[in-house]
Write a structure and sequence with these properties.
Layout: H1 22-31, E1 36-38, H2 45-52, E2 57-61, H3 64-74, H4 86-89, H5 95-105, H6 111-123, E3 127-129, E4 133-135, H7 143-158, E5 167-170, E6 181-186, H8 196-199, H9 201-207, H10 211-217, H11 244-268, E7 269-278, E8 280-282, E9 285-287, H12 289-300, E10 302-311, E11 318-326
Parallel strand pairs: 1-2, 1-6, 2-5, 6-7
Antiparallel strand pairs: 3-4, 7-11, 8-9, 10-11
Helix pairs in contact: 3-6, 6-7, 11-12
Amino acid sequence: MNSWAEKPIHRILIYTEHGLTPEVVEDFFSACEGDVYDPFVGSGTVGVEALLRGRRFVGADSNPAAVVTAASKISPEMGVRLKPILPRLEKYYEPHVLDTLASLASRVSTALEAGVFFAVARKFSLLRYAPAPRFGKRPAGDPAEEYAHRLRQARRDLRRLRGRRGDLLLADSTAWMPKRVVCVLTSPPFANNVDYARHTAIELLWLGVPPSAARNWQLPACEAAARSWKPAIEVNFPIGGKRARGYRRFLGQYLYGMRRHLELLAERLQAEAWYTVGDSLLGGAYIPVHKLLAQFAEEAGLRTDILALGKRARPGRTLYLLKLRTRR
């Protein structure tokens, strides 16, 4: 159960937020004063909490579905038009449900409406997320009634922001970052944990973006997003099994991207950055991702501290908080 799933504003639609528990978020805002940046914005958890506290917020993500979902809460008036790839969507819905959703989609014009639509499109699809998407039971109910109810609820929730709004960009944070970053709170992709294009496939298809294209843009955090043309660093872990080659490829690309990201952060960070990070197990080899990212940060000139937050769902895995501070 996601800690934010039933909280006002967040409940418009929430994705996986690894380690960004209410307790971690509260500790961060108590420790770090100033503008907030989330380079892996996801569904906008950090942005909502920043705006509720009167902080200026900027978020970025390379996944268009994430940017629109976050915007539904942080910049709800932003214009959005859906361009569904209907032939690709047919396998996810009963025909009458798809017809109703297509009619609703044609009337969507803002990020708020798009975020609410995404939540309804998820609920009435044949997919279930537990945690990997898989086909399941046929959903019951009326999508149009659900959409109207959720939209009314979302508009009520957004009053809590008192008109505060944040900025969002579709951007790859391994290659782009604001020139000045004060405070950072984020949960970057975990190595071999979630295929973000697969988990947002429905939203991407309603936006008119093939999931394969989204994988080209995102940081390779799993085999599916690895590409032969993406730069990588050499990895020497004793990864075995039939998938060893694929594991090495995406891990090398993932670590290259995160190293580049942390180098950019070191150039622009003014105060403090908190990253929730998980370790990994690939082909029988333990990958201490938290230590590798801390090493990259130290080499880039940042001071680092690693704190264990607790066990992850899978046995033998741990969630960590990586605190980075400027040496200036």
